[in-house]
Amino acid sequence: MIYPLAYSTWGKEEVEAIQKVIDTDMYTMGKHVKQFEQEFANMFGSQNAIMVNSGSSANLLMLSLLKWKYKLTGDIIVPVVGWATTYFPIAQNGFKINFVDIDPNTWNIDVNKIEDAITPNTCAIMPVNLFGNSCEYSKIIEICNKHNLLLIEDNCESMGAKYNGLYTGTIGLAGSFSFFFSHHIQTMEGGMVLCTDDDDADYMRSMRAHGWVRELPDNSSLYQKTGNAFNDNFIFATPGYNIRPLEMSGAVGSVQLTKWNNIMETRLANKEYFFSLFANKPWCRIQKEIGESSWFTFGMVLDGELKGRRAEIIDALSKAGIQNRPLASRNFLKQPVMRDLDFIVSGQMTAADDIHDNGFFVGNGSKIINEPIDKLYEVISSFVK
Ligand SMILES: Cc1ncc(COP(=O)(O)O)c(C=O)c1O
Description:
37% of the residues lie in helices and 14% in strands. By secondary structure, the chain is of the alpha/beta class. Helix 2 runs parallel beside helix 9 (247-258) and helix 10 (260-278) runs parallel beside helix 13 (370-381). The longest helix is centred in the last third of the chain and has 19 residues, at 260-278. The radius of gyration is 21 Å and the shape is globular. The structure holds pyridoxal-5'-phosphate. Pyridoxal-5'-phosphate (PLP) binds at residues 54-56, 59, 82-83, 85-86, 128, 154, 156-157, 178, 180, 191. Pyridoxal-5'-phosphate binds next to helix 3 and helix 4.
């Protein structure tokens, strides 16, 4: 493989951090997770960070907050291109999934189609910041305010992206992050929710661990501790899960944050190189950046004379050792699981269909990859007359 989809961000420091946890003989969520949460919240200027065992669980917590604390019901607007576990927690919490097409250039939810999709039962919008790229939040916030909708962000692919100077994942009521291997920072498995409101944070901390109140401050609005641990440690105040992260993941997370500037510098340098070769070509469209993207991957949609030739190109890339994948979930309506989900579709999914048929992506990462990108260009441009 000359060009993998993802590169490790780890060095010996991460292995040492894990070893330190092992030496304490305490593997379950504890002080290292707490420290990482604090550092993460500080880095993003957010009031609260709640770590969980994956980005999918982070989405699950946000949707459970809307159902159980906010008592919302009805449908939730999402882009039709996201990730499977963008959508499943919506269904798992009893909401209907309300699909909207994407913008053909940004590949994020088409903000001009949201208002037409709103029903009398719409209660929230959950945009996905796809591949490091922010959504058009000024328009989305305007719609939320006008129609009294809550906003939560699936930001699992976009750590470090900004919109009008604000980090994505901090713009709505809550935002999710993933630290899976291919992501900006890597904690083996891992995820985070950021939120401003302390009561929301307490609710999600309780839901993260059995619904108990043990990790909450003494004076939480959810439960006033009595000071009697025998009692306080076994109070169940929310209908929770067990989606706690391991202590090793927290320890690795803190180390990963010390590498953040280098990780982003490298990703942005790769982006410049990728753009120098692929921008403004009549035979492909690359993602239009909104705000400041953190460039999770490099995607393209074949266009002009290459439209319809994806199968041959994917075959050539794979033979050349260039790993590739479809663009996220593609048009999720075409996935077989849709038969089990309760959903609404408003309008045509034209842009999603185009990336479904003509899109793919290759990797970006914390390593300068000019040579692999050269090879990518060589293989694809060999199909151009
Ligand atoms: C948009 C989006 N949401 C959610 C997830 C789930 O994250 P995880 O793999 O950590 O469960 C992913 C995973 O890549 C994702 O891309």
